[in-house]
From TrEMBL, chain A:
Protein name, UniProt field: ABC transporter permease subunit
Keyword Transmembrane helix: yes
Membrane topology label: Multi-pass membrane protein
Source lineage: Bacteria, Bacillati, Actinomycetota, Actinomycetes, Micrococcales
Superkingdom in the source lineage: Bacteria
Species of the source: Kocuria tytonicola
Gene3D superfamilies: MetI-like
């Protein structure tokens, strides 16, 4: 319990909330790395998932690719890219992007693929073009599943960004690695608690967003498509 | 690959430790989740508690658990036990949710038929409900196993021995082949275990394929509703598949 008290003391010490190594700066770095990672992963994975889900072509490849990427250890990629490309922002971001792609890709793909064929056929028979079918029917219906995948990816990224401190970058993991180096357990504890709070807060925000953008037609009682 | 030739015994040792840290949680997690999920299915108070609890737990990063658990368990921070307990919690979080869905979406007609044939509750559970839930369970187990294998290596950052140690050590000593060996070994373990689980699922669900030719329409209807006649089972599968676990 003493350690929890010390961690609480670390977290409430005004000195730790100011300056370039203060908690707000580390928090911003953490969120910044995560946002950059997610932006790249979204640009890659969402269009690919939409295309495969819509055309039905290459579904097996996507599932296999997502599975293969998922089994790659992020820490291994992080250290490998760092050795190959040198210290800097891009090696860890690249490793994190590979972590974020599988949930987004499989969420987008399975969401679109699960849209009832009858619904798609009726959209086409009403004269909608392929892109209209995708934009006005398939995406709105699949949105909860797509956002579920994105939310999942965001959580994993926020959690894993902690380890970029291991290769001399910032973020909330800085306190974990620095605390470990000087055997300051309370600082390590403060670090992981901050990451957990950030993850819980981000999840709550994303869950709210997911609820807000879900088409009301999908939440009506009765048979869901 | 000279590096591997000189260090294969330590790689094997780390791989063994890695395997223990990722597989033991899956086994314990399964044994805990199934009865828990069965009890929660249809329960008015246990179900929301478990479903909310597991999604909250799932949001907690693994590194947080690796650092906090020693304080609760009284273990060393570098102890393998912390990883086993933390990952067991994640496995339970993944499996309970999908198993509750699987048990709740069982076809009532099938259950009534089993009861009518004289199946007592316990026998009905093991003979009918559990087998019908196998596809969803196997899907959950595969996701849990693969994400465990990838998460175990993160423990190396705070000094817990696993294949992840090859990454931290390789970075410190700038040995690229050491890191590559670690990545390849991790992926090989993940693929082998994943395929073993797939085969296990295949062997346990032979009823899904018997007489498929004669029962095409029924089969197709079942596919749409999810595997094993589990209505909503497909939804559960999709949730499971789009989800990894927090690293």
């Amino acid at each position: 319990m003493n350690l929890f008290a010390q961690a609480a003391q670390f977290l409430t010490d005004p000195a730790n909330w100011a300056g370039p190594t203060g908690i707000p700066v580390r928090l911003l770095e953490h969120v910044g790395y995560s946002a950059l990672t997610m932006a790249i992963a979204l640009v890659v994975a969402v269009p690919l998932g939409l295309w495969v889900g819509h055309t039905g072509r290459g579904g097996g490849v996507v599932v296999g690719l997502a599975g293969a990427l998922r089994s790659l250890p992020t820490l291994g990629l992080l250290t490998l890219f760092t050795l190959l490309m040198g210290l800097g922002l891009m090696p860890p971001i690249l490793a994190l992007v590979l972590l974020a792609i599988p949930p987004i890709l499989s969420g987008t793909y399975s969401g679109i693929a699960a849209v009832s064929p009858a619904l798609v056929d009726s959209a086409r028979s009403m004269g909608m073009t392929e892109s209209q079918t995708l934009l006005r029917v398939e995406i709105p219906v699949a949105l909860p599943v797509i956002l579920g995948g994105i939310r999942n990816a965001a959580l994993q990224v926020l959690a894993t960004v902690t380890i970029v401190a291991y290769i001399n970058l910032g973020g909330l993991g800085r306190y974990l690695i620095d605390g470990l180096a000087v055997r300051d357990y309370s600082r390590m504890l403060a670090s992981v608690v901050l990451v957990a709070v950030l993850a819980l807060a981000a999840d709550a925000v994303l869950a709210l967003f997911q609820r807000l953008v879900t088409s009301p037609g999908l939440t009506l009682t009765g048979d869901r498509p | 690959m000279n590096w591997l030739a000189n260090n294969w015994s330590s790689v094997l040792e780390l791989a063994g430790s890695h395997l223990v840290q990722s597989v033991v949680p899956v086994v314990i997690g399964l044994l805990v989740s199934v009865p828990l999920a069965r009890a929660a299915a249809g329960s008015r108070w246990l179900r929301p508690v478990l479903v909310t609890g597991s999604s909250l737990l799932y949001t907690i990063p693994s590194l947080t658990l690796f650092v906090v658990l020693p304080l609760i368990l009284g273990t060393q921070i570098t102890s393998v036990g912390n990883v086993v307990v933390a990952l067991t919690l994640y496995v339970v979080a993944i499996l309970v949710r999908s198993c509750v869905d699987a048990f709740e979406s069982l076809d009532r007609d099938v259950l009534q038929a089993a009861t009518a044939m004289g199946y007592k509750p316990v026998r009905r559970f093991f003979g009918v409900e559990l087998p019908l839930a196998v596809p969803v369970m196997v899907a959950g187990l595969r996701v849990a196993t693969v994400s465990n294998i990838s998460m175990v290596s993160v423990g190396a950052v705070i000094g817990i021995q696993s294949l992840g140690t090859l990454f931290t050590d390789g970075l410190r000593r700038s040995i690229i082949s050491e890191i590559v060996v670690g990545i390849v070994a991790t992926v090989v373990i993940a693929v082998v275990l994943d395929q073993l689980l797939r085969l296990l699922g295949h062997a346990l669900t032979r009823w899904q394929r018997t007489g498929a030719g004669a029962r095409r329409p029924a089969e197709r209807r079942r596919d749409k509703n999810g595997p094993g006649g589990a209505r909503g089972g497909a939804g559960a599968l999709a949730t499971v598949e789009s989800g990894g676990a927090p690293a």
